[in-house]
Structures are given as C-alpha cells and as structure tokens.
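just leaving the lab so this will be short. below you get a single protein, a line of residues and a line of whole numbers that encode the local backbone shape. id like you to explain what the token line says about the fold, in plain words if possible. thanks a lot i owe you, the record is right below:

…
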Amino acid sequence: MIAVGVSGLLTTVVLPPMIGLFESLGADLPLATKFVVAVASFIIDNKFYILAALIGFPIVVAVCGNAPSVRYIIDRLLLHIPLVGQAILRTNLFHFCRTSAMLLEAGMQIPNALAICIRTVANSRIRAALTEGEMRLSRGQTFSQAMAATGVFHSSSIEALVVGEQIGDLESALKNIAGHYERTSTERMDSLVSMIEPALTVVIGLGVGLIAVSIISPMYSLPGSLP
C-alpha cells in the first residue's frame, strides 16, 4: 500500500510538472517515461471513475458474495488455488475435527455433534461435502465411511478414523487428525508467506524503479537538447 501510494504521488504530482519542463525544452522523452506519462494522464483524466470503481468493487463483491450460489463458486475456486487451497482445506478440517472431538468427549451423540460441527465450517464447498457425509451417516454408514465419501479427508485421516472406531476411541482419533491438520496448515501458510514476500519485493522494486527511471532518464537527454 505504501508503494502504491508513493507511486501514485510520483506519477500524478511529481512527474507531470517535470515532463512539462522537459517538453518545453525539447527533450526527447524515453519510452519508459512516455509509458508512465500515459498511465498518469489516464489516471488524472479518469480519477473520478477510478475512485468510484475502487469504492464500488468491494461493495459489489461483498453483496454478491452473500449469495449462496456465488459463495459456493468462490469457495470452490479457492480450493483449487495451489498452496492456498490446501491451507484452506486443512484449516477447515482442523476446526471440524477439533470441535467434533470436544463434543464427543462431552457425551454428545455422533449425529448431533456432526450437525453442529458442519455449521462451524467456513468454506461452503467443504460444508456441502460434510453435509453429504451427514446424510450417509443417517442412512446407517459408519462415521469413517461417511467421512470417506465426502472426498475432503486424506486417506491417512480416514484410516485413523477406522482405527478409532475399532478401538472405541473416536475422540482421540479426531484429536490426532486435528493436530495433524493444524501442523500441516501452519507449514503450508509459512511456505506461502515465504513465497509471497520475495515476489512482492520484486514487484515493488520493478514498479518504483520504472517510475524512478522515467523521471531520471530525461535529465540525461536534456543537456543535448539545450541550444
């Protein structure tokens, strides 16, 4: 945000007067300078439209995002983003398994606990899959079979649920699965941040560098254009 603000000030406040000076002296403007000037001119000429778009776009996204069908599509697309999708999946499953374990330990029956835990899942795509598992559980399938049918749990998690059912300790199995998803989710988020940080640094450096070059370059051609 700081880089965008600085770039905006340079292109709309600092650069235009300098370009006017260079043009009045007949200096030949480099291609980078002409590009930045064109962008700055577009922003200045359409500032009210751009401001309205910046204000209106988040409002439109928020309103449309409240529609269940649109929310489902967005949540489904998020799950397919590399690294981000797995982090979202594991975070939602972590909360689901941890809450399920707590409710079962408190003595609640599996169908009732499952119905409550499904409502705590933020991602509507995962919530729909778990709702399908709830329906399968009501038809007589075991908890592990119902969760396997959802397609959101990893095979190792399903195996842990099967073992938990066999030894009569489903709560511990859910706790272990929740711990696993918590650790892996944290690791994936850390790796995602480690990838984003250098990418942002490069983008910011290129943007600010382009503006700096567009301001400094005409100064080198200015002496040759003077009489």
The mean pLDDT is 83. The chain has ten helices and no strands.
